[in-house]
Amino acid sequence: YDTPSCADGRQTIVHLFEWKWTDIAQECERFLADAGFCAVQVSPPMEHAVVEENGYPWWQRYQPVSYKLESRSGNRQQFIDMVQRCNAVGVRIIVDAVVNHMTGLGRSGQGSGGSSFNADNRDFPGVPYSSLDFTPRSMCPSADGNINNYNDVNEVRNCYLVGLTDLYGAKDYVRQMISGYYNDLVEIGVMGFRVDAAKHMWPKDLEAIQGLTHDLNTNAGFPSGQRPFFFHEVIDQGGEPITVDQYFSVGRTTEFRFGKKIAWGINDFSQLANIYDPGWGMAPSDKALVFVDNHDNQRGHGGAGDIITFKQPKEYKMGVSFSLAHDYGFMRIMSSYYFDDSDQGPPGSNNGGSTDDVPINADGSCGGGWVCEHRWNPITQMVKFRNAVAGTQMANWYQEGDNVAFSRGDKGFFAMSKYGSFDKTLQTGLPAGQYCELISHCANKVTVNGDGTARIIINNSEEPIFAICAGCDG
Ligand code: AAO
């Protein structure tokens, strides 16, 4: 479950948070394929609650009403069209799967696809689920039925996460409904799943659900016998009894400590060494899904604190570039929209709860309130670097004050200088020759000498990043 079936050995996924299916299809064709992205993580595609009283927030999409593919991002036909068009250009789709729970208590009415529901009665006819399909109250040890104490494993996995009606994953029927949802998506041609709130599910239930899930669809271009890619959202920053290793048998886990360490390291470059800290319980590289920030912690939800986001563009470019140059984990890039308030939905949502298109400016940046970090020059260029150096290890580590550099085997060399002025001859590990510097799109040409050394010059205060790789032409 932990090997993504990327086309052509591609190495990076991008979360196009709250984008519509029609825009994602276009982005695959006009940008992501050429830029070398493996896949897009899409917002939850199932029918969700419509929370008008909070101005149609982004988080309404984490309250499932049914598994019909009818969401704010588009309908079933649009979803299928997106998957087919992205697959056709070698870009895969990863679904954000919200299967731990249904909507919050107190909610009722109609979902985004028109299905009726009543959470207090545990009635979701669009699936259908009834009161028999939710975790029995007697199994939850907390006084109010919610999760208050993260030190009690039974409470975290059997009680309600912020009042969200908790599905009983031990039940065969529930497992069948969830795997039925997965199989529908696999048949359509998706490559994998981010399992939302996996920390709140028992690993043995996840194992059973995944066991019922089909191999990837060969008609969508996947090799036969290939299992879907699964990564589990488990917030483990040490200090709680639920740890990432409990999920290694069912796939990869989100590694929240990585983003924290990147933020610390960008603040103080001496902390950029040993980003992977096994002593802190971090997942080994082949089990880790890594990211600098995510849709929660960029706005103060789940596990926030000590992270950098698009709101500090220069630091963010450095943090993401360093992460892409590094050899640890499988990497996800965040692609956001601008917001002032942490509930705020995507551009257009204040206008009746729909979503605006993503307009592309003449210079390739996005307009209309969309940030599109994945189109920021150093980030796009470093995605190419990561593809080019895949499979190599870090070597020739150099760090002195506010400057850092390292090589990736004999395939690539990366350097970064906090204040954008650096001039030093370093060992690059590369074969002798002329190389194109990637961030400058080959405006800077670099000569690697016969002994592998090269004079590394950085002279750019906004994008103080340097990268060369074998076979990279800018
Ligand atoms: C909304 C409303 C609620 C309402 C509810 C039901 O906001 O007021 O009660 O509806 O009607 C998202 C939003 C929620 C929203 C929900 C449903 O974030 O605000 O609730 O949709 O619409 C925990 C979980 C983790 C979860 C995270 C938010 O473990 O799985 O909370 N993330 C996912 C999604 C997220 C989504 C859901 C789950 C639900 O990514 O977008 O919620 O589908 C500790 C624990 C963590 C815990 C956090 C936050 O973290 O360890 O497990 O995450 O607390 O409660 C330090 C520590 C760190 C600690 C952190 C606390 O950093 O090191 O361990 O502090 O911030």
UniProtKB/TrEMBL annotation:
<keyword id="KW-0106">Calcium</keyword>
<dbReference type="GO" id="GO:0004556">
    <property type="term" value="F:alpha-amylase activity"/>
</dbReference>
<keyword id="KW-0326">Glycosidase</keyword>
<dbReference type="GO" id="GO:0005975">
    <property type="term" value="P:carbohydrate metabolic process"/>
</dbReference>
<keyword id="KW-0868">Chloride</keyword>
<comment type="similarity">
    <text>Belongs to the glycosyl hydrolase 13 family.</text>
</comment>
<dbReference type="GO" id="GO:0046872">
    <property type="term" value="F:metal ion binding"/>
</dbReference>
<comment type="subunit">
    <text>Monomer.</text>
</comment>
<protein>
    <recommendedName>
        <fullName>Alpha-amylase</fullName>
        <ecNumber>3.2.1.1</ecNumber>
    </recommendedName>
</protein>
<keyword id="KW-0378">Hydrolase</keyword>
<keyword id="KW-0119">Carbohydrate metabolism</keyword>
<feature type="domain" description="Glycosyl hydrolase family 13 catalytic">
    <location>
        <begin position="11"/>
        <end position="386"/>
    </location>
</feature>
<keyword id="KW-0479">Metal-binding</keyword>
<feature type="domain" description="Alpha-amylase C-terminal">
    <location>
        <begin position="395"/>
        <end position="473"/>
    </location>
</feature>
